[in-house]
C-alpha cells in the first residue's frame, strides 16, 4: 500500500504533465512538497475546512455558486 506522500507525488506529476501539454509549456507547477497536518479531532477539522473554502473569496476571485451550495457549506462550516 502506498503512503500519502507517494499518492500526492503521482497526482502532482500527472497534473503537471497534463497542464504543461494543455498550455504548451514546461517546468514545475508546484513549489516544494505538499503540506499536510494530521487532524485527529472533529473540532480541529473546522478551521482547515474554513480556510480551504474561504481562500477563493479572500483572494478576490469570482466564485461561481451552485444551487444549494451555500446551505451545504453553511452546515459543514457551522455558519448561518
Describe what you observe in this structure.
- The relative contact order is 0.08.
- This protein folds into two domains: 1-36, no CATH class; 38-80, no CATH class.
- The mean pLDDT is 76.
- By secondary structure, the chain is an all-alpha fold.
- It is flat.
- It has three helices and no strands.
The end-to-end span amounts to 41 Å
Mean pLDDT: 76
Biggest sheet: strands, sense, closure? none
The strand count comes to 0
Total number of domains: 2
Count of helical regions: 3
Protein name: Transposase
GO molecular function, one term: transposase activity
InterPro entries: Transposase_17_sf
Brief description of this entry?
The protein has three helices and no strands.
Topology:
Elements: H1 4-22, H2 42-58, H3 69-77
Write a concise keyword list for the protein shown above.
3 helices, 80 residues, mainly alpha, 2 domains
